[in-house]
Design brief:
GO cellular component, one term: membrane
InterPro entries: FA_desaturase_dom (IPR005804), Fatty_acid_desaturase (IPR012171)
Distance between the termini: 22 Å
Number of strands: 2
Strand content: under 5%
GO molecular function: oxidoreductase activity, acting on paired donors, with oxidation of a pair of donors resulting in the reduction of molecular oxygen to two molecules of water
Shape: globular
Radius of gyration: 21 Å
Oligomer: single chain
Number of domains: 1
Order of helices and strands: HHHHHHHHHHHEHHHEHH
Protein name: Fatty acid desaturase
Number of helices: 16
Organism: Bradyrhizobium icense
Structural class: mainly alpha
């Protein structure tokens, strides 16, 4: 199957296209600064008023901004943080990707294939959407693994083992391979730890950086992956093989930062900076194509669609069996991949 193609000028005028594709360095810097300002403010809140409620709030905010940094790295992978490629890559790598143990150039190579082959058999992200719809019980198991850090731990373990390379390699080769795969990421995180330690807050790195990274960031990454391509109406139609999900203030704060919810618009015009996607959505909504666009009113509506498969295993007489399978960890599928966008 081959996906249909749409040209930008099929739904935008030349003037509109020129406006929305403008890439402004200060806007990219401002969005990165916004993410880090919220992270620092959340840490300061716990330092100033340490209690379980402020800690929980901080984990939710920091986890969402860690996803936000990944989203801004994604903008950098599309060259959208700055019109200057050196500046774009510098901002994307050192302030977005490396702090969350990612890498822009490797992500770009993989991600452009997703754009070229969206929802087709050779889409590298198809594994993220293909299993849906699933049962609510299956999603609850996945949610619990994400929330308790099991998913994050397995992903980071696999990343570390890959960076270390085969045990039979000589030490020098393994060290060079580790630096290539994970060196700058570890360096940036070491600087973060050292800065917090110098401020007398060494504990904030494990509790207010690693915990959100391994827990809430995993929860909302899965929700974002589901919203973008799961249970879409038509895998070959660019207006219906991805989705825009409307997000209110709380959803933007805790689940979908930096306009990541405008995924349909991003796929139509993947070179548009994320801060211009709302304008693209407005223009599309006023066009004859509006009726075809796959949209949902909120993330809860998407999760209802994605968990619509009947819980047959939970019928009377089968519940005990499903509980045994859950305890045995036999339903782990789909946790190793956190790509998308």
């Amino acid at each position: 199957m081959t996906a249909l193609r749409m040209r930008a000028r099929d739904f935008l005028s030349e003037e509109e296209l020129i406006t929305v594709r403008q890439r402004v360095t200060w806007k990219g810097v401002a969005m990165i600064a916004h993410a880090w300002a919220l992270i620092i403010a959340a840490i300061a809140l716990v330092v100033w008023w340490p209690n379980p409620l402020t800690y929980l709030l901080a984990v939710l905010i920091i986890g969402s901004r860690q996803l936000g940094l990944a989203i801004l790295m994604h903008d950098g992978a599309h060259g959208c943080l700055s019109p200057n490629e050196k500046t774009n890559l510098f901002l994307s790598q050192w302030f977005c990707a490396y702090p969350v143990f990612a890498e822009t150039r490797a992500y770009r190579r993989y991600h452009l294939q997703h754009h070229a082959r969206t929802q087709q058999e050779d889409d590298p992200d198809l594994i993220l959407s293909a299993p849906f719809p699933i049962t609510r019980l299956s999603y609850r198991r996945k949610f619990w693994r994400d929330l308790t850090g099991q998913t994050g731990y397995q992903q980071r373990k696999a990343q570390l083992l890959n960076a270390l390379g085969p045990a039979e390699w000589p030490l020098r080769k393994r060290a060079a391979h580790f630096w290539e795969k994970l060196g700058p990421q570890c360096l940036v995180n070491a600087i973060m730890f050292a800065g917090l330690a110098a401020a007398g807050l060494w504990w904030a790195y494990p509790l207010l950086w690693l915990v959100p990274l391994l827990t809430w960031q995993m929860v909302i990454t899965r929700i974002r992956n589901i919203a973008e391509h799961a249970v879409v109406p038509d895998s070959s139609d660019p207006l219906r093989n991805t989705r825009t999900t409307h997000a209110n203030f709380l959803e933007r704060l805790f689940i979908a930062p930096y306009h990541v919810n405008y995924h349909l618009e991003h796929h139509l015009l993947f070179y548009i900076p994320c801060y211009n996607l709302p304008r693209v959505h407005e223009l599309l909504s006023q066009s004859p194509m509006a009726a075809r666009m796959e949209t949902q009113p909120n993330y809860l509506a998407v999760l209802r669609l994605a968990t619509a498969k009947p819980n047959r295993e939970d019928r009377p007489g089968q519940l005990a069996s499903s509980q045994r399978r859950a305890r045995a960890g036999q339903a782990v599928g789909g946790d190793q991949k956190a790509g998308g966008f």
